[in-house]
Amino acid sequence: MNDATRTPNIGDAIADKVGGAGPRAARVTIDSAAIAENWRSFAHLSGAAECAAVVKADAYGVGADAAVPALAQAGAATFFTATLEEARTVRALSGEGKRIFVLNGATAQDAAAFSACGAVPVLNSLAQIAAWSSRGPCAVHIDTGMNRLGVSLHEVGEAAALLHGVKLELVMSHLACASNIIDPMNARQRRAFFDAAAAFPPAPLSLAATAGALIGPNYQFDMIRPGLGLYGSAGLDRDNPRLRTVAHVTAPVLQVRDVEAGAMFGYGATQTASAPMRTAVAAIGYADGYLRSASGKGFAFHNGRRLPLLGRVSMDLLIFDASAAPGIAPGDMVELLGDDARLDDVAAAAGTAPYEILTTLVGAVRRAQKGAP
User: Fold this and answer.
1) Residues labelled as active-site residues
2) What is the DSSP letter of 55?
């Protein structure tokens, strides 16, 4: 039987749906225009303050190659990365003329590399400041209560003295509890930041990232630093403003079956059908970054209809209750993340934050789709 006459099977259906590309069946599409539109929303919110763009961790998993050019074209003049290597990537994608801050700082040995890249280190300790002193422009990070990176409040005077005569491009801090806009720690950190920043040579001030920028104008200072907000979530614990969907993850249905009441699903038989139902098995699992913590709580969408996840997440497979989608068939695509499966809702079902969904699920599927090992 030749290819022109043989009966189509599940392999044909999947190849038709996903184009046969990539080593795994799950697919991701990234909407660069949505990234740019989300940045414009924050730029409008920031008023006179500059709106930067945080693109660390490969633009939160969506891909620096998709995010950086779109952001640069939209008007972003300043980018933040975590590492110098990320800064090199951003420089190649954004071109000359954009400022790039490296959040993890630098050593004296990095000076030439920072200069070649045109990147500015954010110095986080007295040791980093002493090592960098007089080696070029820099920023300084004050720890106002998060106890992560940053110069401690009792070290501010010594840090300011070490930076005397150095071109200081930014003084920054980071809010620990901005996801809850009424948390009293926000106000405490703001006061500590304002007081500590006065010790340094005059420079622009930045306290707020995505959620912090939404607390109010008093938190925006001279620059806001949206990261998560660019990729589809405002990062608040509740009442999130609607942002444009950036990442869409889909997977093909491999098998559809009708089961009787009492049927059990997945490893450990952790869930039992209380009534007859139709189920659909999709080709995605924790090997693709779909979090196992979503077992029994996750969901997908098929043509706008919600399909609850049944049982545990497997390495390559998920089982869904497809009773609400009687027309579902092998080869159809289900949406794991997108306009219906909203980022914040997917994160809540997995008991995590949208940051992890982006870097883990979107990042893993995107890398596999590109054929990375």
Assistant:
1) 56, 267
2) -
- Judge whether 14 and 253 are in contact, CB under 8 Å: no
Check which CATH number belongs to the domain holding 260 and give it. 2.40.37.10
Q: How big is the chain, counted in residues?
A: 373
Sheet (strand 50-51) strand order = 50-51, 223-225, 205-209, 168-172, 138-141, 119-123, 99-102, 78-81, 53-54
| pLDDT value for 372 | 52
For 217-233, give the DSSP string. Answer: GGGTTTEEE-SGGGGT-
Range of 24's domain?
Answer: 10-28+245-369
pLDDT tens per residue across span 175-209: 999 999 999 999 999 999 999 999 999 999 999 99
Position 2 in a domain: no
What is the pTM (predicted TM-score) of this model?
0.91
Distances (CA, A) of 117 to 64, 120, 143: 17, 9, 27
Q: At what angle do helices 84-94 and 64-74 cross, to 10 degrees?
A: 60
Of 204, 231, 258, which residue sits at a domain end? 231
In this structure, the answer to whether residues 197 and 312 fall within a common structural domain is: no
Quick one: 150 and 270 in the same domain? no
What are residue 149's DSSP bridge partners? none
Instruction: Check whether 54 has a pLDDT greater than 80.
Output: yes
Kindly tell me if the per-residue pLDDT of 11 is higher than 70. Answer: no
In this structure, are 16 and 38 located in the same domain?
Answer: no
Number of domains in the chain: 2
Do 128 and 108 meet the contact criterion of CB atoms below 8 Å apart?
no
CB atoms within 10 A of CB 247: 27
Residue 7, Cβ neighbours under 10 Å: how many?
6
Domain identity same for 250 and 295: yes
